[in-house]
From TrEMBL:
It comes from candidate division WWE3 bacterium CG23_combo_of_CG06-09_8_20_14_all_40_14. It comes from the Bacteria. This is ASCH domain-containing protein. InterPro entries: PUA-like_sf.
Length: 139
């Protein structure tokens, strides 16, 4: 639970991750606790918690990553504002995405501007990993 963070993500990048065209999540910051899982809250117009990804250790620029993948060449060339690349190892989708209104009402959730540790929302954590909502593996 402490090694899981929630990131906001634009819908177009979420689609690229799901299709495996984008295989790293790029960020300009590194959480103090190295995440092993990243929960993706998809921003407007989706406005829902949709995915949970298992990630590898962040690659720190100027270290290089494989060139196959959206944004990878730009990261390697230093053309991204992001200094960190989290390799996406596995991706799951929530059987039922959780819309922002429900997240707010049931769990006191606020969409993260940068990131938030998942343990800030223990009831949400238990709900996501409980029998009420199943995670479906995509890859």
């Amino acid at each position: 639970m402490t090694r899981e963070v929630i990131f906001s993500l634009k819908p177009e990048f979420a689609a690229l991750i799901e299709s495996r065209e984008k295989n790293h999540e790029f960020r300009g910051y590194l959480p103090k606790i190295t995440p092993r899982k990243i929960w993706f809250y998809i921003t407007k117009p989706v406005s829902s918690l949709v995915y949970i990804a298992e990630v590898g250790s962040a690659v720190v620029y100027p270290q290089k990553i494989g060139i196959a993948g959206v944004g990878n060449s730009d990261f390697n060339a230093g053309r991204k504002m992001s200094k960190y690349a989290f390799p996406i190892m596995h991706l799951c989708v929530l059987k039922r995405p959780l819309p922002l209104v429900e997240l707010q009402e049931k769990f006191g959730f606020t969409a993260p501007q940068g990131f938030v540790y998942a343990n800030k929302y223990p009831k949400l954590y238990n709900f996501v990993y409980g029998e009420e909502n199943t995670l479906i593996g995509i890859f």
